[in-house]
Amino acid sequence: MSEAAETATSSFIAACVEIVGAQHVLTEAHDTAPYLTDWRRRYTGAACAVLTPANAEEVAALVRTAVEHRVALVPQGGNTGLAGGATPDASGTQAVLSVKRLNRIRDVDPHNNTITVEAGVVLAEIQARAREAGRLFPLSLAAEGSCTIGGNLATNAGGTGVLRYGNTRELCLGLEVVTPQGEIWSGLRGLRKDNTGYDLRDVFIGAEGTLGIITAAVMKLHPLPAARVTALAALASPHAALHFLALAQRFAGPLLTGFELMSDFCLQLVNRHFPPMRYPFESRHAQVVLLELSDSESEEHARGLFERLMETALQDGLVEDAVVAESLAQSQAFWNLREHIPLAQAEEGLNIKHDIAVPISRIGTFIEETDAAIAGAAPGARMVTFGHLGDGNLHYNVQAPEGVDAKAFLAQYQSPINRLVYDSVHRHHGSISAEHGLGQLKVDDAAHYKSEVEVRLMRALKHALDPLNLMNPGKVVRFNP
Q: Which helix (H) or strand (E) holds 411?
């Protein structure tokens, strides 16, 4: 960094200290390190400072200061993202703006079925506060103990309840946002109907902080279900799982809140690395579905519905075996199998991950065709396929062959396998990022598969809102001011 640049950076840091106090402007390496590496440890950047404001007004003041000094800001929540969207670049000229101190729950309104929260509130805390009010906040994902609602909104996170409740976007009624000019837009209205112009809320959800910084949100709540009943069903193929999904939706309708697909190899990995989590059936099956009903009437009603569903599925030959959880502990054990798949993958070694979506009707064909193509390109590769079948989202991951060095496998095959998978997703009219966002990981791949018109519209939006390109540059869409 030149002497002039160092002077400018020092001036910026001094101005930030005036706004939030010296203890909330981190510059020492041991203080900034936790903010500079992404959760998967794929990216490590550098930053001139880590800023931790306490409210929207301080965020706005920091943004105005960044504009004055031409310093790019990288918003960050719980730093649990999987696409490098909250990691600064390596230049050391960007500043990380952490929302962890924006952690107040401002209001819970049971009659309006809403909760108003600041961006730094951890997801699990929102779930707990909703339960205290006799309500359900249905967003649920593996990182809920550390991810923040601001990050969930910035990436439009999905999770296990999308089938019934939708992505984070569908759970949000209003936002408070600091614009790239340092102004505060307060859209915390909590309305289900508001046709007074452009839907600004949706502009910022899923934008990963590239168009402004979300500082608070009004989120929807739902009635607490009277009962939740969970089951595992064994099937012969993804095609059978699709037919079973249709049957379950016919029987249960909106009561069906979870429908998770797990291949046999996924559960083998879990059992290998977490032996207490045993395979749930006496014999092995190609696919296992975890499904859950949330019933507003009673557990007896839900269990009776489940039994009729399973009886029909077994008679029709869709399901080879099934087990219904008999207790809360057994239900949690079923979910633990699903949630430990990523952990088991990590224990097994490095792998090539894909968070993709295709139309639900095409999932079986997509898996068959893409599995075959990968087997031809990388003989012996092991497929770790699992995900939210009910909304078409698959975590379609590729593990190195047994006994093969994982680093060497990735070095040789990651790029060609990514292209093979993304080409297949594109042919099936899908998306290369379903719930993890683009970040810096997929920004160029997204531009490759989107039409020129779509990319041009995205760049026009970026230019209109952030003409100086100071909001999380290099993420979501490439843009030169």
A: helix 406-427
